Amino acid sequence: MNDGSLKTPFLHKKPSSLRYFQEGVCPVDLINWKLEIFGEVEKPVTIGYEELLTMPSVDYHRRNVCVCLWSIKRHWKGVLLKDVLAIAGVDITDRSLYIKQNSVGTVNGKYDSTIHLTSAIEREAILAYHVDGEVLPLENGFPLRLIDFGLYLYKCVKCLATLEVTRLNEIGYWEKYAGYSVDGTVLPKKYYAVDIQRKFLFKGTGEVKDADL
Amino acid sequence: MNTIDMVYIAPAIFCRGSSIYTNEGPIKKIALSGFWIDRFPVTNERYTKFILADGYSRREFWTDQGWDFVTSLDEQKPLYWNDFNWNQPKQPVTGVSWWEAIAFSKFEGKSLPTEAQWEYAACGGIDLYPWGNERPTESLANFAPGCEPAELNRRSTSVDAHPLAVSRNGCHDMAGNLNEWCLDNISPDYRWDEFKIDPIYATAENLPHVVRGGSGLHDEDCLRCASRDYYSPELRDNIVGIRCVLNEQFIYE
């Protein structure tokens, strides 16, 4: 539960994530929801929500960046991607592997995006189920969202249903639709920091740290 | 030379850039040859002529890489061509890649502006925003304060919706609504510019290109005349449109 210490300043000013929810919000029944991991794995596995909650967790206070030029630093809780992949026996040192994420989907289809596996592991990507001390809202991808802080949010699939370990760096939904980069690394640009209510010029690539502001 | 609905900008020397962000500097005086620039962004009505003239199938308008790109598309028309929120005749055309912007400009016998031309057309060497130094308001531009558009389901405004925002050079709709593709590739700042005469930073057409002006999805800072952003030439989102120029001096082919 949120005791107030995990509050994000100016959260009410955050642009609505519904705008960026291409297939739309999908209410998920946790009884039936499972995360499936398959593909280039030793053994395909399915993991339920309660099982995820019992795994060792991490708490990160890190910044996300939207390709639409805003960013926000929030308190995320979840499990490390590498820990989840270990259950399926994925070789996380194999640099030729990618992870294709698929959303639960709606009548409008499923959202998918593929990321480079070892890069995501090195950036300590997580599968997030809490934000700011609360269960992930539907708008932010309940019940589970992959978050790689070095990538734009369009590479981090909401309402996650499957992780396919693959050797194919497949073009994803938003990249195919609107021409955004398949790589999705956060680029050197000006971004608006919602939580501190000011613009900054990011001169690096990848995750935006406090020193970059 | 068809200069209908274009404004002539006489040869000028002006201070390009700003000291607000380092990617907008260093501020230096640069010289521009005279050029004509569209008074308004390219509208859907205007772009229709390109489609009806089979512009998407006529090889002569496309660069080699542009041709490869356009022939790979599922549908040969702008991405938002069938979307009511974006396809009205007086709305600016959007959902067009940099290659489509180049092809359209060639169809009209024109070019895209360099970012220096774009900036001077917007600021006249003086103004913070195209209309002057007054802070942006809804009556001046379609933009998103704090990056949050007023409506969840966005749409563009017609190109003549903000007459008070006309630049001192006579150009409309240069701030907000849609960014506009420029010829230049993006550079970290202007330190590359040694000669400061008709500058253009062109490295490779398949690398990201500058866009200027901000959009209905972007905040007030993006509306400043000196603000710079960039996207890969493949981008076809509803945040970028087209404005063309005619050059007195040949600068790009």
Q: In percent, how helical is the residue content of chain B? A: 10-25%
N→C terminal distance of chain A: 30 Å
Q: Identify the CATH homologous superfamily of the domain at 31-61 and 75-182 in chain A.
A: Oxidoreductase, molybdopterin-binding domain
The CATH class of chain B turns out to be: Alpha Beta
* CATH architectural grouping of the domain at 31-61 and 75-182 in chain A: Alpha-Beta Complex
Spans of at least 5 consecutive residues with low confidence of chain B: none
Helix content of chain A: 10-25%
- The number of distinct β-strands of chain B equals 9
Mind describing the biggest β-sheet of chain B? 4 strands, mixed
Order of helices and strands of chain B: EEEEHHHHEEEEE
Chain-averaged pLDDT of chain B: 96
Q: How many individual helices of chain A?
A: 4
Using DSSP, what is the number of strands of chain A? 12
Radius of gyration of chain B equals 17 Å
Distance between the termini of chain B: 17 Å
List low-pLDDT spans of chain A. none
Instruction: Just name the CATH architecture of chain B.
Output: Alpha-Beta Complex
Structural class of chain B: alpha+beta
Structural class of chain A: mainly beta
Mean pLDDT of chain A: 95
**Number of helical runs of chain B?**
4
